[in-house]
Amino acid sequence: MKTNSPNVLFNRQTNLSFDKTSQVMKQKLLLILILVAFYSSVFAQASRSNGTVVVREMNSFLSSAVNSGAPARIASNNNSTINAQRLNALVTQVQSSIYFYNGEVKTYGDAPTNLFTDASSLNQVNNSITAKQHIEIVTIAINNASELNSIIDLAAFSNFPNLKYIYFISNIATTSENISSHIGHYDSRLNLLYKIDKGDKNQ
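The structure corresponding to this sequence follows.
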């Protein structure tokens, strides 16, 4: 009686072919997962950036806050409520302050709450300013088109624990959208404001 024996060679080739196909499929699946993760991360970063970098015009903001009779809310990641009276005091009344221009630090008063500087000095701020603890507002002068169109890196203020406001004073015409498009390393704890003032550098 004739018996059928399995084709060992055929079965071995089939198994090898299946193993290779399985490995290729695993590699393709891994590549797809990596690409999905990468593009998801990029999309999320773009969404956060597009949704959170808001720069408000200072005078309009304070005016609306006064008219409402209550602390105003300004757009930010954490939707923080601003004390409009305190903000107004910081920008209109004499405060203990640090002035940092052209690499020179000048401090007036104890426990300064205000820091005045310009866009060209930002890369030196962190190392040059030692009295960071009480700074609540940084006023940044934008003096020319080159400064306006350069990246304004807010990482310079990452070691200022009580900082709440970044206030841009531009000596040339600009818009909130133009300023926000040049913000680097945005920090959601900071509220960004601006004013166009061609004649006053510091206030």
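The mean pLDDT is 79.
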